[in-house]
Design a protein that fits this description.
mainly beta; single chain; Lipocalin; 528 residues; Nuclear Transport Factor 2, Chain: A; 14-stranded antiparallel sheet; 10-stranded antiparallel β-barrel; 5 helices
């Protein structure tokens, strides 16, 4: 009796603790939930297609209409490709640069959303269930949507299943929102599906309706798309009625002009493979305008006047300071030669003010250069006194750099190397410097912003030459020349941010502080 009760108790515990299979309402209807991803990214169907589009637009009181074709091809060696076929008779009325810019944005979005779940699996809810029709609602996963599609994060989707067959997915808004300068009152996107010979479903068409205001004027946009052909990697046609058939698809049409992006580039090397795997890469070429401000306290390592070396430990005390203020406008051109390695060239200039404050309890005197054995020594710093001087220099700065980058999910890390040379024509002095900046950071996709922390190494080995005019204790004028060897602490902490205005323009701000220096760097980058 007790044994029977124990067995029943263990069985009931197992029943209540296990996870039920097919509890997902879409799986119950034999529909993979991943099909919702196609509402956002139809390239995830892993099949090429050509869609005919009828686009109507009311904006600024003007109505326009355009019929064209969209071609989506996931099979090129360099990754997915989007192309549009525009009627040649309409080309004079179209801005092709704007169309290419839109394609560029769409390509970036497609690469961003090729992986990851775009919907919230826990939000799937049955809102209607009859023998003839079932409706299942859902919301999107805000963390996986790119900035351009964040408006979907506030919308609700509805999956319609009629007689056990998926027919459409409708996405619509419940409140007013802003999109590309449009105050949207109504947003309705419907994606239609058809089954393909027990192989699942493919998109058969889609509609988009946007109603709102633009600059205070009525705005309406209506887009209706119908898929006219599907094909596989061998250009063999895929039909809804018969599945794959051995007939080659022809998409060329002499009455249409094909507009596409040049994605078959040599750089970065292995970039084609990375894009094919679904990784979003930065544009290969970049031009950055850099403004750097640095405040450095330096330590004297050597001191020489008119060829006479001075013992610093005996002469100068701890109140002596050597401060350098530098402003450097630079231009940096870079190229991603590999998906994770960038090489760069740097050219610019520096404007530097160096203030020297030498304090000596014992004073500093040097032999008279005219008759050192007859005339009394020249007092450079009287006992307990100080010598103040300043030096202003302008230098030409040039160098090379390399960046190694990597990341996982929203986390990233980079190590930046720079070797630069500063040449001062007025002094005929050449100084070299090495800068290494390792950082780690996190990307906030909602705001297209990256925050990072790290460290910075600067090796600023340098020697400053000077000419000094002063009066000795007798009021006699003297001119002396010499050199000062300087160094500063090499490591400093780094914190910064990077913001992307668009897929071409970005800016970054870096602040570095250590024992001997403070550094601020502001950069504006254009990538193409």
């Amino acid at each position: 009796m007790y044994k029977l009760l124990l067995i029943l108790l263990l069985q009931s515990t197992f029943l209540f603790s296990q996870e039920f299979y097919n509890s997902n309402p879409l799986v119950v209807h034999r529909i993979t939930p991943d099909i919702i991803n196609n509402v956002i990214s139809q390239t995830r169907q892993n099949v090429a297609f050509r869609m005919q589009l009828d686009h109507k637009l009311l904006k600024d009181g003007h109505q326009s209409r355009l019929n064209y074709f969209l071609i989506v091809d996931p099979f090129p060696s360099y990754g997915s490709e989007l192309k549009v076929q525009l009627p040649k008779k309409e080309l004079d009325n179209l801005e092709l640069s704007e169309i290419r810019s839109s394609l560029d944005t769409l390509m970036g979005i497609e690469l961003h959303v090729q992986h990851g779940v775009l919907y919230d699996n826990n939000s799937l809810t049955v809102v209607k269930s009859t023998d003839q029709e079932s409706v299942i609602s859902f919301t999107f996963n805000k963390s996986t949507l790119p900035k351009e599609l964040k408006h979907f994060g506030e919308m609700t989707g509805y999956v319609y299943i009629e007689n056990g067959v998926l027919t459409k997915i409708v996405v619509k808004n419940s409140k007013r929102f802003s999109l590309r300068g449009i105050e949207v009152n109504k947003f309705n996107r419907t994606t239609y599906f058809k089954p393909v010979q027990e192989r699942g479903y493919l998109v058969s068409g889609s509609t988009l309706d946007i109603v709102g205001t633009y600059d205070g004027s009525p705005y309406e946009e209506h887009l209706m798309g119908t898929v006219v052909s599907y094909w596989n990697a061998n250009r063999e046609e895929v039909t809804f009625e018969h599945g794959l058939i051995k007939r080659r698809v022809v998409i060329d049409d002499d009455s249409y002009e094909v507009v596409a992006l040049d994605l078959d580039r040599f750089f970065p090397i292995l970039g084609k493979e990375a894009r094919k795997a679904g990784f979003e890469l930065p544009k290969p070429f970049g031009i950055t305008l850099v403004n750097m401000f640095q405040d450095t306290n330096m330590h004297m390592t050597s001191f020489e006047i008119d060829g006479l070396g001075i013992d610093l430990n005996k002469i100068l005390d701890g109140d002596s300071t050597y401060r350098s203020l530098t402003y450097a406008p630079l231009l940096r051109a870079d190229l991603w030669v590999l998906p994770f390695v960038s090489l760069s060239l740097i050219l610019g200039g520096t404007d530097t003010n160096t203030d020297v404050h030498l304090v000596s309890d014992s004073g500093l005197s040097i032999p008279n250069p005219i008759l050192p054995n007859i005339l009394p020594p020249i007092t450079v710093i009287p006992p307990g006194g100080a010598l103040n001087g300043s030096l202003h220099t302008n230098s030409v700065l040039y160098g090379v750099g390399a960046t190694i980058a990597g990341g996982f999910d929203n986390y990233f890390t980079t190590i930046d190397f720079q070797y630069m040379v500063a040449y001062t024509p007025s002094k005929d002095v050449t100084l070299d410097m090495m800068i290494i900046t390792p950082i780690v950071g996190y990307t906030f996709n909602d705001y297209d912003t990256r925050l990072f922390i790290g460290a910075q190494y600067q090796r600023l080995a340098q020697e400053i030459t000077f000419a000094l005019d002063f009066n000795d204790q007798n009021g006699q004028p003297h001119s002396l020349s010499g050199s000062v060897g300087l160094r500063s602490d090499e490591w400093a902490g780094v914190i910064g941010t990077d913001y992307s205005f668009s897929r071409n323009w970005s800016s970054n701000l870096l602040y570095s502080q250590g024992v001997d220096r403070k550094n601020v760097v502001l950069g504006i980058t254009y990538r193409f």
